[in-house]
What we know:
Oligomer: single chain
CATH topology of the largest domain: Glutathione S-transferase Yfyf (Class Pi), Chain A, domain 2
Amino acid sequence: MPLKIYGMTASPPVRLVLLTAEVLGLDYEFVEVNIDKSEQLADDFLKLNPQHNIPVLQHDDFIMNESRAIAGYLVRTFDPNGNLYPIEPKIQARVDQRLLFDMGITSRAIEDIIIPILFGRKLNKNDEVKKKELDKLKEAMNWMREMIQETGYAAGTHDLTIADLNFLVSYSTIRDTKMVDTEEYEELEKYFKRLSELIPNYEKANGEGSKLLGDHYIKMLSLDEAHSKHSSNK
Length: 234
């Protein structure tokens, strides 16, 4: 039975799993679960994942969620030589640190900015709050830039790891939503372009979904700004 990956391509966590599967050259079936239509709450999906989040991996009778855990499972199962997840403890620990850094800092900063816009949550943020959120994201990007300086890879390795795949997902999301002018981050731009060319089917696994998310965010942001301007003129 081939692997099944459930999710939607605009989702950054789903894209991490798809990138991992593509780099490993895995045969998998992608099953669309559109959370905009609440398909994650359908009975069949809830049987797979009562937590009703995406992505979800199904490998025979083994089912799990959470993108970084899924990526870790895939590399441990299908990459025994440890190319994407090096076996040496100190290097592996650094890969883990980068994954947790992205989860707790970079991705959190991205979500704080885009989630209210994407889901129409009117939080009435003032300019000071918006600036603080953007400053947090820029700080995370500066740390990302420092992390890749040593060897050109996220975890100080000389080859691609799942930490790089995670960084690519976050950076492409920042880039395509235009939250930050990424041209100001020359090292990250070069890193992004170099690594995206190394990954098989990069556009299918990450590029197309990132652009979908970016276009949708920009559209929703424009509507939100127009609504705010209209409200302030009343």
